[in-house]
Amino acid sequence: MYLENSLAFAQSLDAQDELKNFRSLFHIPKTSSGKEVIYFTGNSLGLQPTTAKEAILQELDDWANLGVEGHFHGRNPWFSYHKLLTAPSANLVGAKPVEVVVMNNLTVNLHLLMVSFYRPTSKRFKILMEGGAFPSDQYAVESQVRFHGFDPEQAIVEIFPKANEYYLHTPDIVQKIKDIGEELALVLFGGVNYYTGQAFDMQAITQAAHEVGAVAGFDLAHAAGNIPLRLHEWNVDFATWCTYKYLNSGAGGTSGVFIHEKYADATSLPRFAGWWGHEEKERFLMKKGFKPMRGAEGWQLSNAQILPMAVHRASLQIFEEAGMQRLWNKHLQMQKYIYFLLDEFNQKTNKFNIEVITPRDERQSGCQLSLVIKKIGKQVYEFLTKNGVIVDWREPEVIRIAPVPLYNTFEELYLFFNILSKF
């Protein structure tokens, strides 16, 4: 692929982009002078779809006009609203509809899933995590371990990169699983690490976990809507994800859950129950005795969060139209271009060097690139912010950027380095 470091070339790539019109489906924040910012923070909070407000207003109007009757007579009846999200969510994560449900928030779902899938014994009680997992995951796992009466120092095993390296190697993860062996109850990784941007080989990790008799689960907060997923095919036991990052469904948005089909009829599997997970045909009989619905829906607790789900539905409709494969193809083009620009920047500038701690291998990364600029990284981050580039800073030394194919452009990639050169 021929590449050129010029504004005209970047604009020519945008002109050829078959997804270029999707940018108009999002509100792009503006600077105080009215200029659109370069928004590279979809890994933290995705932009608002232009249809989000209308989606919420429709449900507010039905509430105003119908009251409680909105549950059954609204334009999108609330009683079954979550089902509108099932098929597109399943498409996103490579699942069957029976394996997916949208409910609650991410860490709540993580706890609910560990109730069912972390079943420690005196011999098999350990949990393997990637070192430096997102803090909420660390806290959730620590509290689950204590709840079962174990010491987190003994029960939680973390695997870190080798000395002088930033990310993990799949053979090392697999070997660690084998080393823990019969003591391993659960492998719980992020699909993509929030700090380094490394995408893990979930299929290999799952297979290794199963070979030693353990369960494999994933937090897909930074993976859903970012990288291609085939959870059913990979035989993943469970997963959960938020919807406010790459899935553009608003701050504090609802969460998705995947539970493999092999557990669809596992009614004896321990779980915390609520009435929305009870057999739908009998839900309003108000009787004792929990009978879980088949599949992931049987893990629901309460009725649907209509307003957050309305935003999520608006976003999912965009993903359905764009198609995850087309988004991934554009991402790969953007990744090649940004690395080309970055390498040229490092070769030509004598101001500072940018080190990327995210794997360059497309099989081990998604949209996010984690950049390290020694000593002056925080100053560079603040300079970018002042110049209309929205990125984020993660201690101790990382600037995270995430050009996403739905609304970012090749021109923005070019301008990013052009602005950096003026530091």
From TrEMBL:
Q: What is its EC number?
A: 3.7.1.3
Protein name, please? Kynureninase
- List positions binding pyridoxal 5'-phosphate: 106-107, 134-137, 219, 222, 244, 275, 303
Tell me, what is an example of a GO biological process annotation in this record?
L-kynurenine catabolic process
A single Gene Ontology MF term assigned here is: kynureninase activity
Q: Does the keyword Kinase apply?
A: no
What the protein does?
A: Catalyzes the cleavage of L-kynurenine (L-Kyn) and L-3-hydroxykynurenine (L-3OHKyn) into anthranilic acid (AA) and 3-hydroxyanthranilic acid (3-OHAA), respectively.
Please provide the record's keywords in A-Z order: Hydrolase, Pyridine nucleotide biosynthesis, Pyridoxal phosphate
Under InterPro entries, the record lists: Kynureninase, PyrdxlP-dep_Trfase, PyrdxlP-dep_Trfase_major, PyrdxlP-dep_Trfase_small
Subunit details: Homodimer.
Required co-factor(s) are: pyridoxal 5'-phosphate
Q: Which GO terms describe its cellular component?
A: cytoplasm
Q: Which NCBIfam families match?
A: kynureninase (TIGR01814)
Q: Which Gene3D superfamilies match?
A: Aspartate Aminotransferase, domain 1, Type I PLP-dependent aspartate aminotransferase-like (Major domain)
Q: Does the keyword Ligase apply?
A: no
Q: Which reaction does it catalyse?
A: 3-hydroxy-L-kynurenine + H2O = 3-hydroxyanthranilate + L-alanine + H(+); L-kynurenine + H2O = anthranilate + L-alanine + H(+)
